[in-house]
Amino acid sequence: MFRNSLIVAVIATIPAAALAENFTTAAEIKPILDATRANWIAVREFDGKDLLYFTQLLSWRCGLSEIRYGLNGATADKVWAMEPCYDTEPQPNALKMEGAEIFLTAPLGSIQTISISVTYDDGTEASADFKRADVMTP
Q: The pTM is what?
């Protein structure tokens, strides 16, 4: 609930001209990802495994050129594969789940910290570090 209201609040602050866009460039998605940085990833325990979700970042991938991650103190140097941006379609950021995953699987309890680095399509970067307890979902 909080995540959705935060996204609505961020979108409400974006000038009307920007709302006409498809959120496919760094300039359009930076304010959203900056405001929702605490929600970039999520960890869930499911079926005896840890699942690390990248859904929030993947939903805005059209303005990103790369997502990198590192687990448990490792540098964020592993590249997460992303679906292409469907920029010729009405919903370019739609996740079609074709050839790319939204989460990685790890042994139960093994993910304790996560480092994330994103590179925007304008070449700028942003990063964040997360503790398991701060990004756990029910």
A: 0.82
